[in-house]
Amino acid sequence: SLFPVQLTLGRKRGAGEELKAVKEQLRGIPERGIGYGVLRYGSEKAVREQLETLTQAEISFNYLGQFDQVLGNDSWFGPAEENSGASQTPGYHRPHLLDVTGSITGGQLRMVFTYSENVHHRSTISRFAAGYTIALQSLIEHCRTTDTGNLTPSDFPEAKLSDLELTDLLSEFSDAMKEN
Predict the structure, then answer these.
(1) What is the pLDDT of residues 149-160, one digit of tens each?
(2) Which listed site, 25, 75, 134, 179, has its alpha carbon 20 to 30 Å from 15?
(3) Residue 100 in contact with residue 112, Cβ under 8 Å?
(4) Range with the poorest average pLDDT among 34-43, 95-104, 127-136
(5) Would you state the torsion angle of the CA atoms of residues 82, 86, 88, 89, taken in this order, to the nearest 10 degrees?
(6) What is the pLDDT of residue 73?
(7) CA atoms of 104 and 60, how far apart (whole Å)
């Protein structure tokens, strides 16, 4: 589903805290945002028109998934080696100024930045992509060096723990593991 999200960042917290905050905000969206599409495209005309008047997002982020898990090495099927051609018709008007699409293939994360050369210079998008890469590498490094793995209450929805309760529980567990 495609839906708008406005994330709140603290800017004073570290990378781990920001990552946890974003994860919780995204997981807090009911039914992974499908309700927005129902309202936007399948509801009464007045509701659709009201949603159309709202400011539209300029950037779209789309994670397509981990294709390695779908198409294993022993699969009869695999990605075509041939060029698929243009993904959009020449007259198509993209709804976002920038589309960032990610997927994992061949054990590697692949990010594609799609933009209009009528709006952005290639150098601008290259700088944006470089900054994106640096930020992503920083988050990966943080996750690799953190004992708790950035677990949040939404990782354990049935436990109904607060963030503080989970932090205390993980701390006790970590201390117990060090003693053994």
Answers:
(1) 567 888 887 888
(2) 179
(3) yes
(4) 34-43
(5) -130
(6) 66
(7) 18
Q: How far apart are CA 39 and CA 52, in angstroms?
A: 11
Nearest to 173 by CA among 157, 156, 158, 29: 156
| 106: DSSP letter | T
Nearest CA to 130 out of 122, 118, 141 is that of: 122
Q: For residue 14, what are its two tokens?
A: 């570290």
Q: Taking a C-beta distance cutoff of 8 angstroms, is the pair 94, 116 a contact? A: yes
pLDDT-derived band at 123, boundaries 50, 70, 90: very high
pLDDT at 61: 92
Got the DSSP string for 28-52? Answer: TSGGGGHHHHHHHHHS-HHHHHHHH
Q: From CA 166, how far away is CA 159, in angstroms rounded?
A: 9
Contact between 114 and 77 under an 8 Å Cβ cutoff? The reply is: no
CA triple 49-115-128, angle to 5 deg: 115
